[in-house]
Amino acid sequence: MNLSKLLDLRFVIGVFFTLIGLLLLVHSFVIVTSMEGAESINRWAGVVFLAFGILMIVLSFQKEAHDEIIEEPRD
Amino acid sequence: MNLQLIDYLIIAIYFTFVIGIGFLLKRRVKTGNDFLMSNRNIPLWITSLAFISANLGAQEVLGMAASGAKYGLYTTHFYWLGAAFAMVFLGIYMMPFYYGSRARSVPEYLKLRFDEKTRTFNAVTFAAMTVFSSGVSLYALALLMEVILGWDFNFSIWMAAGIVLVYTYLGGLTSAVYNEVLQFFLIVLGIAPLVYLGLDKAGGWEGIVANVDNAKLHLWKGMSSASTNPMGVDAVSIIFGLGFVLAFGYWCTDFLVVQRAMIAKTQNEARRTPIIAAVPKILMPAIVIMPGIIILALQNQFTGFELPKNINGDTDYNMTLPLLLQNLYPSGLLGVGITALIASFMSGMAGNVTAFNTVFTFDIYQSHINKHASERHYYHVGKATTVVGILISIGTAYVARGFNSIMDLLQLVFSFVNAPLFATFFLGMFWKRTTANGAFWGLVSGTGSAALVHGLSVAEGKGGWIANVHQFYSGTSQAFNIAWIAFVVCFVVTVLVSLMGRPKKDEELRGLVYSLTPKQKDPDKVWYKNPLWLGVAVLIVTVVLNIIFY
């Protein structure tokens, strides 16, 4: 993977939501809170965020991805 | 409410990404054009989401939930009446002149169409308005963080302003726009679970209907008189004042949003930007207004959902969303919700700052202070203006106390400056006889009349600083009425002064006026690439929604 992948906004957003989704999932299994139903709320939200994140990453690997990256300006 | 480690972690990840985007884009920005206009090189889906997100500031997310609780579904008029039509009009009819004229800003279009003084008047008022809005955003953020999390007021101001400064300073408009798209998804995905959990707790839509005052669940019922609906407005002032004057004035002439469409790659994409943006816009009430309705239903069934009073002893509707976050989100998701709130403040602020630096650099600095400098020079001016703009915002934030509803305050400012503006653009684009003097004096008298009406009328104890000649039913009603009066004054004065002067020659107006611009033949026969068909589709959905929630 080259650096230009990081300039594809879909990829950046995908990584962000994947991270947040994973965090919520792990949290829901590890930490016990007093709030009723807290674990399942975090778990479901985590699954949704993770799915959205992965979807964005997959989209960023579509073949027209080159159009999504702004061109290097000329000096 | 108490944040746990995981919540702070999520906020920290968000800040890291926001600043990271600034660093990634830094080396792509070399000229004033890159920094202030993204070199007109941004993909359509990004311009569309940034278009909607630049508007999705704090006044939307917190303010619309507040209005939802205060006025019920009437608040939806800000979307289905006060946005959709104007956005489609911008895309179909006005964008060809903004994009096609190669103007770099909205005030610059005024320079091309009219003259320097009209542009300067617009540039100065707009610049003042953006730094002011940005300061109000900052103030509201700091206040909210102080109340709900116990964060130090000064810390919040300097932290938020500092982060916005870093990413807009490094990557310019592109960085602001990229972050706006991230913020858009974060706000939508971060608040959607709240609506789901709230609805679930309230007993679904049946629970809402059973527990919320029926008057607050309609859009048009009770609109025949100002006294029979929660917003205190009548049908004429809402349709003409909000739906026509305020909405078109904001969406079609406010450079903050128009700028996001002007950086698209082609004119067709620039035209489709506001129309595609209208799709999430008409669905947005489900995320931003529903929380206000939900809290009303929950108040009726449970304890712990009572809104606190503010220092004046009035119900503090702005606490609607934070209160729901506190009661419905467990730590973890709470971090996401708080981050979404912070994101909304930052996107509103960055949008204002990037519009401010472009207008200042091109329309004030380049046209009055240093006309013929190098691209590199304007790049540095743009960067310096970014710093200065944020410093002024911080100053404004410290001054901006004493107003309890962010929405009313912003509406007031918009109504003075923006309401007459649409008359000027409308006449300028569609009546070739309009002269520069007509436009200028129309704008001045329109803005002046707005201030005058505010000074002569009172609503909810505000206004009437000259005399109390008329009492409006509500502050919202006063704002809508000021808007249409300013529009009419500007329209009439512009026409009268224009008729007394000599118009510009036809050759000078090509590409700037409707009747003198060759119609764009869109080679794309596919309906979704044609702004007109796309716009019609959006409007049909909007009308159907209005009927469903009659």
How would you summarize what this structure contains?
The complex is a heterodimer of chains A (75) and B (550). Chain A is mostly helical and 75 residues long.
Topology:
The complex is a heterodimer of chains A (75) and B (550).
Chain A lengths: L8 H22 L7 H23 L4 H4 L7
Helix pairs in contact in A: 1-2
Chain B lengths: L4 H22 L5 H6 L6 H12 L2 H14 L5 H4 L3 H17 L5 H8 L2 H34 L3 H50 L1 H8 L23 H19 L1 H8 L4 H17 L1 H4 L1 H12 L18 H9 L4 H37 L5 H25 L6 H25 L5 H21 E3 L2 E2 L6 E2 L3 H26 L30 H18 L2
Parallel strand pairs in B: 1-3
Antiparallel strand pairs in B: 1-2
Cα distance spanning the termini of chain B: 38 Å
Strand segment count of chain A:
0
Largest pleated sheet of chain B: 3 strands, mixed
Q: Which band does the percent of strand residues of chain B land in?
A: under 5%
Mean of pLDDT of chain A: 78
Global geometry of chain A: elongated
Q: How many DSSP H or I helices of chain A?
A: 3
Residue ranges of chain B: pLDDT <50 for 5 or more in a row?
Answer: none
- The arrangement of helices and strands of chain B along the chain is HHHHHHHHHHHHHHHHHHHHEEEHH
Report the span from N to C terminus of chain A.
26 Å
